Amino acid sequence: MTSRWTGVHTSVSTWRQPCPVPASPERTALVKKVADRILALDDGRLRVGIDGPTASGKTSFGHELAEQISRMGRSVLRASLDDFKKPWRDRHLYDRESGEGYYRNAFDYTAVTTLLLQPCSSHGSGRVVLCGIDPLTQVDHSSVVTIASSNAVLVVDGVFAFRPEINEYWDFRIRLETLPEISLRRGAERDRDWAGSEAEALHRERYLLSEGLYVAEVDPLRLADVVIDNTVFGRPQIVQG
User: Fold this and answer.
1) What is the pTM of this model?
2) What's phi and psi for 67, nearest 5 deg?
3) DSSP characters for 150-193?
4) What single DSSP character describes residue 168?
5) CB 17 within 8 A of CB 11
6) What is the side-by-side order of every strand in the sheet holding 127-128?
7) Distance separating alpha carbons of residues 83 and 131, to the nearest angstrom
8) Which tens digits make up the pLDDT trace of 107-127?
9) Which helix (H) or strand (E) holds 9?
10) Which residue segments constitute the domains of the chain, with CATH numbers given?
């Protein structure tokens, strides 16, 4: 199945989060400033990676950035690394329950590369898959292809976005920062509907631990083109880049 789009094209994943309403003039101005920097890079296809701890606001920022770039006249493709995790049916083959297991084993970086990032390069085929396996339904959507225009901007959010397996494919790297206690609180509140009373422990023992491993091994601040303190949603600040 193939689809075409001239605005913001989103994936078929059921793991969805709506685009937030404008929180403040300051946030709107910051998003536009980042969009200006991205579009100044090239008139051809661009791939933007948005990295940060769990619940740091990556998805919301990605939606806002995609909408802004679309308003500025470029076609946008929107994706999340959460839609390229290994299937749950294979979880007995590896540990993805612990913090270290989640960091090392949860994501299928071969699929991210071959289905999403390589096709959307300036010399790629343009036949882009925006969702590998739906993280909720486990339906395989790797046959659903979106045609990226010659000037499309791909905006992808996800934890561990600058890992060596995929870091070289980004044309622009954004890192969102927030205090660990803020990430823990936001994440537990967000996931309490499905994780119940285990939500806080899940974030503390899996996601925060895995983020610590990532920071120690990769040092994402070193790789980012821009670092944004997203602790206060209405008053984000560029702190690097």
Assistant:
1) 0.91
2) -65, -40
3) TT-EEEEE-TTTT-TTTGGG-SEEEEEE--HHHHHHHHHHHHHH
4) G
5) no
6) 2-3, 145-147, 127-128
7) 5
8) 999 999 999 999 999 999 999
9) strand 8-9
10) 2-234 (3.40.50.300)
